[in-house]
Amino acid sequence: MNNIMERWFHLSENNTSIKRETIAGLTTFVSMAYILFVIPTILGEAGMDKGAAFTATALSAILGCGLMAFLANYPVAVAPGLGDNAFFTYSVVLAMGIPWQKAMAGVFVASVIFTLLSCMKVREIVIDAIPYDLKLAMAAGIGIFIAFVGLKGGGLVVANKSSLIGIGSFTVPTTWLTIFGIFVVVILMARQVPGSIFYGIVATTLLGLVTGLIKMPTHIVALAPSMKSTFAVGIKELPAMTDPQMWAVVLVLLLVAFFDTAGTLIGLVQQAGLAKNGKMPRLGRALMADSLSMLGGAIMGTTPSATYVESSAGIAMGGKTGLTSLVTAILFGLSMFFSPLLTVVTSQVTAPVLIVVGSLMASSLREIQWDRFEIAFPAFVTIIGMPLTYNISYGIAFGFLIYPVAMTAAGRRKEVNGVMWILLAVFIILLYVLNVLPSN
């Protein structure tokens, strides 16, 4: 066994061991296990079967982590992303009025294009062309958007006729369940407890069960739910791609997926000490693993994959190779037998998770050059555009439209990559399509 592990993952070369990598993989899994409940819950709001979404999410995570392990040998976990998940449900299905089955066709087409772009190394070219500050702004904006979704789902903010939104009612018992969850997760994370988010979900769920705010499940262990309602739906709905509005969806999915992985992957590889001379070894393989995972997830019936920042917890425990990712994949496989627990993970239970994860994503705000207006303003409109329009695509479009113009006005036109001018034209078309074409 040791010889096989050594041959596949080069453990001695990376100064690590099977024991250390196993502990790192377990830590990564515990840190991100919450997605098995949060992602199906969000997709459930789009009208999808939560059980099928649970199975698709788990299988996509197994595929993504496995590919990252064997193709790139990175201690990085890949699974359906919360940012893409939120965009699919709240922007595409609910805001644009596109049925989830039809929207899945857009996910599938975006996945195919995404894989082709990875093969042709276009992803690397575009990623290099996007200003670092806008990448940071996109991550922060999606984080604030996700936090807003959590505040809304937990009852902490509600609609208000006079001011659009207002504070929720503290006479509602389930709102206090959300508040309890927030405090538990915050305390655990402040104490740097690995798996804080997962433990927060468990504690909040137990409180809900004890108080009767959440109904007790009839059983805990069961075979994984069928994916019949979601499997290959995107392929079956491909005729829907004759609608120009669907190509707007594909474009934004591509852009979100483009930038969701890049920054996180770079940061994790640097944390693990795997970067050499400022460059990432096996970057092309890592991007291919991410792309193939996205394609597999689209076929199974879930939203695009992303590199998970929770991988940093496993790396902090000493993970340096793909064996960490392989252990995480195996644990996702075992978790598929606990799908009945989905019924007890309500929106009040997942709300604290979305709020805390949102705060983690917003941490990128500190690195933006706020003292340079031509950079700060495009970043600012990118960030506030997402929660205030309740649409991730609008926030991205606002920033990409303003950045080249602001930089040119500041006498820094030569610093603007030609790709950014192409993206400006693309987003003008995108905004026109999203605003002018009728919802289905």
UniProtKB/TrEMBL annotation:
It is a multi-pass membrane protein. InterPro entries: Azg-like (IPR045018), Azg-like_bact_archaea (IPR026033), NCS2 (IPR006043). The chain crosses the membrane at residues 23-44, 51-72, 103-120, 132-151, 163-190, 197-214, 246-269, 315-334, 375-406, 418-437. The keyword Transmembrane helix applies. One of its GO terms (molecular function) is purine nucleobase transmembrane transporter activity. Keywords: Cell membrane, Membrane, Transmembrane, Transmembrane helix, Transport. One of its GO terms (cellular component) is plasma membrane. Signal peptide: none annotated. It comes from the Bacteria. It is found in: Cell membrane. It holds the Pfam family Xan_ur_permease. PANTHER family: GUANINE_HYPOXANTHINE PERMEASE PBUG, XANTHINE/URACIL PERMEASE C887.17-RELATED. Belongs to the nucleobase:cation symporter-2 (NCS2) (TC 2.A.40) family. Azg-like subfamily. This is Transport protein. It comes from Ligilactobacillus saerimneri 30a. The lineage of its organism: Bacteria, Bacillati, Bacillota, Bacilli, Lactobacillales.
